[in-house]
Design a protein that fits this description.
It comes from Cyprinodon variegatus (Sheepshead minnow). By secondary structure, the protein is α+β, with helices and mostly antiparallel strands. The protein has 8 helices and 21 strands. Strand 18 and strand 19 form a beta hairpin.
Length: 362
């Protein structure tokens, strides 16, 4: 707890005390109200190297842990699985669903991802409300969000099922796209769509050769206009993705914040900024913009934004509980070291080991 005392002016007998509660990250632990029964297994599609790990994990969950395993129908219908007679009995016990048709959000206790970071992003997109705990195994090209190694999956899964694990609450963005249909069809009302985003919202100029020109509002006040290739609004989780490539700082996922990063701004002084979680950002086309812009959400659902449309962004009340392999500090810095080789350089030799001790420049 941090205590802040505000003293009154002279002659006024008042004392205000504000108490700020800061949660200890170490207190974020996985706790099951009841034993998990239904587990969703997400497998990276079109990667034959994941077929055997997928079969091994499903067999372990069904036969040894007596769990109900949910998978996508296209995964269960994979030709490689259907041809494997030894896996037939397990395959027949899998519960299948189709994205966009079947709602499984209320029946899943645990999510296990096999692949790269894209598998966790996809799992997040399946749950537009509350998200079950996610355990991600690193079997893809990037591993910022996938801390577990599959070699020890039996031990690690058993620990998670017992509730023995730390949790990182990865904040998401709630994004509303409001389409002004009045300008296109006078008798139509405005259309609004809402989506939950784990990494970032990207607004870009699309195929146009002109710079994008959009206005950025913060809690209803115009902050600035962005002229350039576009702008990225990201979570701390997304700070190591597109935002990092655009020059933003990397923020630990436990920091409550929203990042705004310009993409190739036509201004030398436009630096990325960090604003408090919970504020509402709004992006609209500037009145004098020469062209429309495009928006995408975690690289999906790309759509065009025209004059009169607006994008409203704020912190979602539904984070993604990501299960840690070790703890939320070690896992994050380990991912920076392994994926980005953060702060890797050749070390200086000790002065006693160099021939000329007076040379301290190299």
């Amino acid at each position: 707890k941090l205590y802040l005392c505000l003293l009154s002016p002279p002659g006024v007998n008042l004392l205000w005390m504000i108490t700020l509660h800061i949660q200890d990250p170490a207190s974020q632990r996985l706790t099951w109200n009841k034993a998990p029964v239904n587990v969703l297994v997400i497998r990276k599609i079109r990667d034959e190297s994941l077929v055997e790990p997928f079969k091994e994990l499903c067999r372990f969950l069904v036969e040894e842990k007596q769990m109900m395993v949910y998978v996508e129908r296209r995964v269960a219908d994979d030709a490689t699985l259907s041809k494997d007679e030894t896996f037939g009995s397990i395959r027949n016990q899998l519960c299948t669903f189709r994205e966009g048709y079947d709602d499984i959000s209320d029946c899943i206790d645990l999510i296990i991802c096999l692949g790269g970071d894209g598998t966790l992003l996809y799992a997040s997109s399946l749950f537009q409300g509350s998200v079950p705990p996610v355990m991600a195994f690193h079997l893809g090209s990037l591993g910022f969000l996938t801390p577990f190694k599959f070699d020890s999956y039996r031990t690690e899964v058993a620990k998670v099922l017992e509730g023995n694990a730390a949790i990182t609450l990865r904040s998401r963005l709630k994004v509303k796209v409001v389409k002004d249909m009045l300008q296109r069809a006078p008798h139509c009302l405005c259309l609004c769509s809402c989506v939950q985003v784990l990494n970032e919202v990207v607004v870009d100029r699309g195929p146009s050769s002109y710079l994008s020109n959009v206005d950025l509002y913060l809690d209803g006040r115009l902050i600035t206009s962005v002229q350039g290739d576009g702008v990225i609004v990201s979570t701390p989780t997304g700070s190591t993705a597109y935002a990092a490539a655009a020059g933003a700082s990397m923020i630990h996922p436990n920091v409550p914040a929203i990042m705004v990063t310009p993409i190739c701004p036509h201004s030398l002084s436009f630096r990325p900024i960090v604003v408090p979680a919970g504020v509402e950002l709004m992006i609209t086309l500037s009145p004098d913009a020469r062209n429309n812009v495009w928006v995408s959400f975690d690289g999906r659902r790309r759509q065009e934004i025209q004059h009169g449309d607006c994008i409203k962004i704020t912190t979602s009340c539904y984070p993604v509980p990501s299960i840690c392999c070790h703890d939320l500090v070690y896992d994050w810095f380990e991912s920076l070291a392994q994926c980005l080789h953060w702060n890797v350089r050749k070390r200086q030799a000790r002065l006693t080991d160099v021939s000329d001790s007076s040379d301290t420049e190299n």
